[in-house]
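Subject: Branched-chain-amino-acid aminotransferase

B.,
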Amino acid sequence: MSAPAPAFRFDPHQAPVAATERAERLIDPGFGRVFTDHMALIRFSDEKGWHDAQITARGPLPIDPASSVLHYAQEIFEGLKAYRLADGGTALFRPDANARRFRDSAQRLAMPELPEALFVESIERLVAADADWIPGGEGALYLRPFMFASEVFLGVKPAAEYLYMVIASSVGAYWKGGMRPISVWVSREHTRAAPGGTGAAKCGGNYAASLIAQKAAIAQGCDQVVFLDAAERRWIEELGGMNLFFVMDDGSLVTPPLTGTILPGITRDSLIALARNQGLTVREEPYAIDQWREDARSGRLVEAFACGTAAVVTPVGRVADTAGDFTIGTGGTGQTTQRLHQALNAIQRGQAPDPHGWLHRLT
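Prediction pasted inline below.
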């Protein structure tokens, strides 16, 4: 029988950011640089289970240099947003899906599984404390739940103590003046994940391993890197932090299947549902880099886009590769890409019906 969920206590910030200064910061917050006054925190130990749940002032963490996370990288995280709705209310977008993926990631990293209800409650309470930090217009409050091994020991084993936290960051519109197509570099030397690895988990190690390829992409004048599979170096998987879709000339969409090496994106899942609602065929099937090039050249492929929580939808206009560069369609933002982005954005902001029940309204 599982232990009862710990009750949250609220320890308000004694010196929160003044309203005038907060308003200044929210004019153009960018992404991931403006943080709110509070954070959520829950501790775990093998002895006590989940305990000491609190909303408290955001601040630095005292951490022992022998903390397990610093040596063996037991760490996972999530990303989701809180939106100011058209009717003035506030809502999270599919926090239950993030909660499930967080548990899956914890299981893969041999970490304790946070109950889904406790995950959602921690976010609800933090948003309630810092609701004034949600920007107006196209902005949102980006939420970063994460957990790491905090036990002080040097030994290769699952830790006995963990710290779960949520921090919040005010973010502005990702695209100013409309979506801009990006260019991507095909990584032939490095891969993101291998079968049996941690590719389907949202852990920091996956992103750390992708940075050298991202650095190479920037050196090639590209915005992002696209990874191929580790076994054959043939099949397209995903970008450094986004899933990929391909739009064909018959209106159908193709996206790489979830085979354990690709992160099961919540935006990806939402777009598949919306596309099918619009009568489009979506095929989750392998798609090779050679197919991508040939389909772009023949005109069979008319659009490609990446998707994720931060940018939601990002058009891909050009692909750079040692085997030869190519442009997708006109190199601009395609109609299907634009339509799906608008449909998802409208639901997230309460401007359109929500037939799937994705919006989690806060009181």
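Residues 182-348 form a domain with the D-amino Acid Aminotransferase; Chain A, domain 2 fold (CATH 3.20.10.10).

T.
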